[in-house]
Amino acid sequence: MPKLYTMPGTCALAPNIAVAWLGAPIEIANMAYGDHKKDAYLAINPRAQVPALVFDDGDVLTEAAAILAHIGAAYGKESYARDERLGRKEALSYMTSEVHGAYGPHFAAARYADGEAAQAEVKRKSYDRLHEHFVRLEKTLNDAGGEWYLGRRSFADAYLYVLTRWIKQTPLSIDDYPALKGHRARMEADEKVGVALKRQGMDPVG
After folding, report:
1. H or E element at residue 50
2. Is the pLDDT of residue 81 over 60?
């Protein structure tokens, strides 16, 4: 059985949710923080990042977007029109690269600047950029009807949930993005999301 490596607080929650939604036969291996830097996991992913999906033959797939694409292709039970498939890919690409990347200075300011003052400025600018992203995400969600990011539930919602969870760790407030706040609450009311949170040792934030 394939094994999905996760860790509390990380974006590995998105494919974890996808596994729960589809009932995919994938084992969840949740590591304690710090185990991703130990030899056993570095042998799986030398970049010391989660998620990683390990197949029965030993092959490894990393990057959340790629893992979500595999889970959908291998275990998805729904049939979508071509433009909707492309819409999901575009949404996930934007979320996993641009929006996730904008959190970088918040989580690891020392990678971007030396000294406390410089790091504080880098963080401040990152919050401005994140606000721009969340305004865009809010508009897209509202334009799609306000319930699901692309008009109906997709893996983009799983990743959006991760991004909106992280808002709580920043000076930004989810209250400034009411559609995203409603989406986060909707996700946390989902039974399978609750299953994924429990498997990853995490609690709802709403």
Report:
1. none
2. no
Take residue 164 and report the two structure tokens written for it: 């909106």
Q: Which domain holds residue 176?
A: 82-190
Neighbours of 182 (CB within 10 A): 15
Q: Is 170 helix (H, G, I), strand (E, B) or coil?
A: coil
Residue type, 31: M
pLDDT tens string 100-125? 999 999 999 898 999 999 998 999 99
C-alpha span between 182 and 131 (Å, rounded):
17
Ordered DSSP codes for 92-126: HHIIIIIIHHHTHHHH-GGGT-SSHHHHHHHHHHH
The pTM is what?
0.94
- How many domains would you assign to the chain? 2
